[in-house]
Design goal:
By secondary structure, the chain is of the alpha+beta class. It has one domain (12-122). The chain contains three helices and four strands. The protein has helices spanning 12-17, 19-47, 57-86, and strands spanning 90-91, 97-100, 111-114, 120-122. It has a four-stranded antiparallel sheet with strand order 1-2-3-4. The longest helix has 30 residues, at 57-86. It is elongated. The model has no long low-confidence stretch (mean pLDDT 88).
Length: 133
């Protein structure tokens, strides 16, 4: 069985049409990440640096519940990231921008969408420094 790979390409107009979908996915990732941090913080208080189960029954039960919720949050965040990838897009970990492939199907001539301002911007082109002759 062979699989065909399809290059995903967007011009500015089609990238603009992605914005509502990107907004939803980005909010999902943001909310899940915030919940992951909150759960990890609480787990650190309950379990300490060794991640051991507390001996007190109520704290032990809470720790087990938090671990299950953490696994769910991490899985759902991963699913949201995969949704972006299925669109050919990737989350830029440095500032939360989403990279969108451009007309060539690469990220180099693509677009950046920032969920904070909602705008889509062309990726700045990288021009080599002119050399003196």
């Amino acid at each position: 069985m062979t699989t065909d790979t399809m290059t995903i390409r967007y011009d500015l107009e089609s990238a603009e049409r992605l914005k509502p979908l990107l907004q939803g996915i980005a909010m999902e990732i943001h909310e899940r990440s915030r919940e992951v941090r909150r759960i990890r913080h609480r787990l650190a208080k309950l379990s300490g640096p060794e991640q051991e189960l507390p001996t007190e029954p109520a704290e032990r039960a809470e720790t087990l519940e938090l671990r299950a919720r953490l696994a769910t949050q991490l899985r759902e965040r991963r699913n949201s990231l995969e949704e972006l990838e299925e669109l050919g897009c990737f989350l830029d970990g440095t500032d939360g921008s989403v990279r969108i492939p451009g007309p060539s199907g690469t990220l180099e001539d693509g677009f950046l969408w920032n969920w904070l301002d909602g705008a889509i911007h062309p990726v700045p082109s990288v021009n080599p420094e002119p050399t003196g002759a």
